[in-house]
Design brief:
It is a single chain. By secondary structure, this protein is α+β, with helices and mostly antiparallel strands. It folds into two domains: about 10-75, Arc Repressor Mutant, subunit A (Orthogonal Bundle), CATH 1.10.10.10; about 90-250, Chorismate lyase (3-Layer(aba) Sandwich). It is built from nine helices and nine strands. It has helices spanning about 10-25, 35-45, 45-60, 90, 110-115, 150-155, 160-165, 190-195, 215-220; strands at about 65, 70-75, 100-110, 125-135, 140-145, 180, 205-215, 230-240, 240-250. The strands form two sheets. It has a seven-stranded antiparallel sheet with strand order 6-3-4-5-9-8-7. The longest helix is centred in the N-terminal third of the chain and has 16 residues, at about 10-25.
Length: about 260
């Protein structure tokens, strides 16, 4: 959602009011919103501001315009608080989520990457998940995901902490060993677990994209030559100002398209 100029704050506030009304059931999925004049009168706002907020809600997948009917609430509107945050297996699945195959589920000490992005102290213990995302028998991406230390999650997002312990028992608690792929590994990414646990928690995220080559190890994992061009996506998800998940996703040439949303 991007709004520019002096109208940004009132339009965003209006967007929030309508989105809240959708998610609290005032306008349930499948219902039709009142006409613009009636809705503007009910909300006590101008029609130009309302129209701009409604267009933003359409862009974000909350509303759909149906000819002869008007604006209707989508059957599955995005959950409040993380409308633009999606697990990679859904984002690049083109309507059919990719399969997640767990390669590694373990606990490890901070690396340079997690020290920088999760602000993890030197002796922290961080859950690390390595997964291959595949569709139609072809490996489409390699994901590395780290969660913040348990004490941080217990403080800022206890629901996520509990969900991780429930879905990843082999790597819970201090001194946990290494768990490789097997029948008990969750068929979902760590971000998918976070999204499912965040129905009442607002998330924000930042991503970066870099062109690179797979390299030998990642090429072996994805069944591609080491010199295959690839896109490296780094991602950090926060609750407030606290980072709780950091990830690296490697997408080789030929992987499904990755939608990119730019805002300013």
């Amino acid at each position: 959602m991007a709004v520019s100029g002096q109208r940004r704050r009132p339009v965003v506030a209006l967007y929030e009011r309508i989105a809240d009304a959708v998610h609290d059931g005032t306008y349930p999925p499948g219902s039709t919103l009142p006409s613009e004049p009636k809705l503007a009168a009910e909300l006590g706002v101008s029609r130009p501001a309302l129209r701009e907020a409604l267009l933003l809600l359409q862009e974000d997948g909350v509303l759909t315009v149906r000819r002869g009917v008007g604006r209707t609430v989508n059957d599955r509107p995005p959950r409040r608080g993380f409308e633009q945050i999606q697990p990679l297996e859904e984002l690049i699945g083109a309507g059919e989520p990719l399969r997640v195959r767990a390669l590694l589920r373990t606990v490890e000490e901070p690396t340079d990457f997690t020290t920088q992005h999760l602000l993890a102290p030197a002796r922290a213990e961080l859950r690390f998940w390595e997964s291959v995302l595949a569709g139609e028998g072809t490996a489409a991406a390699l994901s590395h995901e780290w969660a913040a230390a348990d004490d941080v999650l217990d403080r800022v997002h206890p629901e996520f902490a509990r969900a991780l312990r429930a879905t990843d028992p082999a790597a819970s608690g201090k001194g946990a060993g290494t768990a490789r792929s097997g029948g008990t590994a969750p068929a979902a990414s760590m971000l998918a677990v976070l999204v499912a646990a965040s129905r009442e928690t607002a998330l924000s995220a930042h991503s970066g994209i870099t062109a690179t080559l797979l390299g030998r190890r990642r090429g072996d994992q994805l069944g591609r030559p080491a010199d295959t061009p690839a896109v490296l996506v780094t991602q950090v998800v926060r609750v407030g100002e606290t980072p709780i998940l950091a990830a690296k996703h490697m997408l080789p040439t030929g992987a499904p398209a990755l939608p990119v949303l730019q805002s300013h």
